[in-house]
Amino acid sequence: MLIIKSPVEKTIELDHDIYLLKIRCPEIAGIIKPGEFLNIRVSESMYPLLRRPFSVCDVEGDDLCLMFNIFGEGTRMLSRKHKGDLIDILGPLGKGFNIEGDYDTAVIVGGGLGAAPFPYLTRRIGSRKNIFTFIGGKTHRDVITYGMKNVSTATDDGSKGFKGTVVELFKSRFSEFRGTKMKIFGCGPNAMLRSLKEFCIANDLECEVSTECVMACGFGICQGCPIESTEHPEKYFLVCKDGPVFNVNDVVL
Amino acid sequence: MSKVDLSVNIGPLKLRNPILLASGTVGYGNEISEFTDLNKLGGIITKSLSLRPRKGNPPQRIVETPAGMLNAIGLANVGVEVFLKEKIPFLKKYDVPLICNIAASTIEEYVECTKILTEEETIKAFEINVSCPNVREGGLQFGNDVSAVGKITAKVKAVTGKPVIIKLSPNVSYIADFARAVKENGGDAVSAINTLVGTSFNIFSRKPKIYNVNGGLSGPAIKPIALAKVLEISRNVDIPVIGSGGIMDWKDVVEFMIAGSSAIQLGTINFIDPSAPGKILEQLEEYCIKYNISKISDLTASYII
Ligand SMILES: Cc1cc2nc3c(=O)[nH]c(=O)nc-3n(C[C@H](O)[C@H](O)[C@H](O)COP(=O)(O)OP(=O)(O)OC[C@H]3O[C@@H](n4cnc5c(N)ncnc54)[C@H](O)[C@@H]3O)c2cc1C
Ligand SMILES: Cc1cc2nc3c(=O)[nH]c(=O)nc-3n(C[C@H](O)[C@H](O)[C@H](O)COP(=O)(O)O)c2cc1C
Ligand code: FES
User: Fold this and answer.
1) Is the beta carbon of A240 within 6 A of some atom in ligand 3?
2) Residues with Cβ < 8 Å from B203, sequence gap 6 or more?
3) The domain A105-208 is classified under which CATH number: 3.60.15.10, 1.10.8.60, 1.10.443.10, 3.40.50.80?
4) Residue B125 in domain
5) Crossing angle for the helix pair B146-157 and B107-117, nearest 10 degrees?
6) What is the pLDDT of residues A27-65, one digit of tens each?
7) What CATH number does the domain containing B153 carry?
8) Range A2-93 has CATH code 2.40.30.10
9) In terms of pTM, does the model score above 0.90?
């Protein structure tokens, strides 16, 4: 864990209100893993007061990339950063995806901005495994496929790709993967993760999901980010420290 | 040797400087030790401990508000037993006064927790939380009742020889009455203030943003209120006050001391900049050197009104 002020390299508007921010930060770029996150102070003033959590979207050499959409004031301010502006970063934080292991096909399932951690996951898995990616959103505007491989898309309104949810799309294509050893990587809205979990349990698939929770600190000192544990109902996990990536069987979604 | 005497006394408790880390904002110390050298601090106050482990409230527990945040953690903690077994060994490695904060649902539970914890020599003092706004039983129920606060003070004092600090609620009309009850019942100091009760709605769903409906407001938004409460105690009751509420930098520390605090607590700032406690301490010392303050304790209640 480090606190560093690092300069913006580039701000790119990928799509309407969706941004990619590249920050030159060799200290964190060198150690961060896919699925881990950064807690960013978007302003030195008291507004906004708390840091904002973002998954690492990709690492390009010394640059950290974040992908985000404008949601409220914090993300709006972040989208207005220019080359050379310093960004106050706390990270790397949390536990990321485990890309090692005994599988030969990685199936990535992302909903909306839940696709954010996957370019880096894709890069780190590289050519060691087969990768198939399913990305969904409400409309074609919410489907972001930046930095991903072998992508199929789904939209609720059918404006791009399969008409339906991304999990339905994955189900419809599932027979193609029979016989391979699969590992599923998911990130997106809770409803999507829940149906992904159901499907993975029904088909006995290994699956890791990246979860979200409103956070204050991002590193375990405020107890602000509980998520229910399946095995230990008497206590919560902390999303920021025990996650944000969990084995799907370990948490109640 | 520092040129400035930064040490302060909180009744019988001697601290090397006035910077304490507030309960519930540093866990049990290990995470923040990566950013701040605990050995330099005046002290560290644990997350509120209860006799048994507490799971705490379901999410959402936190919401940001203008210049502040609401929290309804619900006193999630590992309980006294696990604290002694698993958390104390880490804290023992440091030469920093450890103050244990205790929360309870009944007066007997406060007493029981204190009895168990007082045996542990690493613990130098107790801070009794009678002011948590986020649990149904306990907490504020006591914090709003002068005679209950007096009774808890007396009963806890009766089972420990260590200094007892009572953490007061700002959600009362006359906080000085509570400080007086603490003093009259043998308490050594008061902390002021805990969080203020607040709430926040989602205007589209019309539901509260926080599961618990209400939360405790902390951060810069509460600073003027906290200062007024510290001043009220300082002007009316002869008891050491540990100030807290929205302290973000060294200037706030000085302001709280002028208003009557003997020491202060850093809370919400730890979430934003966990390296702040160390920096604030250095800047505080620079301020003292620059303005020829040879003893920082001279600042306490130095207001000119
Ligand atoms: C581990 C993690 C990784 C994330 N990664 C990404 C990412 O890569 N790209 C991306 O666009 N978004 C990501 N998010 C969500 C992102 O943090 C929020 O969109 C952002 O905080 C909104 O801030 P704001 O000031 O614009 O919105 P506001 O609505 O003004 O924020 C108010 C408060 O709510 C919190 N908040 C709002 N939405 C969320 C949310 N979905 N999750 C957690 N806290 C929230 C904010 O942090 C802030 O404290 C991630 C969240 C978490 C927990
Ligand atoms: C997330 C959070 C958790 C807290 N938990 C406790 C607690 O367990 N016990 C307690 O006495 N005070 C608790 N507090 C109150 C703080 O110790 C402090 O009194 C208050 O936040 C005001 O200071 P600040 O504005 O600097 O944060 C908590 C505050 C926050 C923000
Ligand atoms: S965000 Fe503070 S403990 Fe997780």
Assistant:
1) yes
2) none
3) 3.40.50.80
4) yes
5) 30
6) 999 999 999 999 999 999 989 999 999 999 999 999 999
7) 3.20.20.70
8) yes
9) yes
Ligand 2 pocket check for B134: Cβ under 6 Å: no
Q: Where are the domains of chain A?
A: 2-93, 105-208, 211-253
- B205, part of any domain: no
CA atoms within 13 A on the CB side of B87: 23
Q: What digits encode the pLDDT tens for the residues B57-73?
A: 999 999 999 999 999 99
Q: Is B132 a catalytic residue?
A: yes
CB atoms A223 and B63 under 8 Å: no
Between CA B48 and CA B24 the distance in angstroms is 7
- Six token digits for residue A54: 């973002």
Residues enclosing ligand 1, CB less than 6 A?
A 37, 48, 50, 52-55, 57, 67-69, 71-75, 113, 116, 212-215, 244; B 64
Which tokens is B190 given?
A: 């008061």
Distance, C-alpha B258 to centroid of its chain: 18
A90-94, A140-144, B5-9 — which is least confidently predicted? Answer: A140-144
Give domain status of residue B209, yes or no.
no
Which segment of A140-154, B122-136, B267-281 scores lowest on mean pLDDT?
A: B122-136
ipTM of model over 0.90: yes
pLDDT band for B264, please (50, 70, 90 cuts): very high
Q: How many angstroms separate the CA atoms of A127 and A122, rounded?
A: 9
- Residue B63 covered by a domain: no
Tokens 């129920």 — which residue? B141
Domain A211-253, second-level architecture: Ribbon (2.10)
The residue-averaged pLDDT of A202-224 equals: 97
* Contact at CB, B73 and A223, closer than 8 angstroms: yes
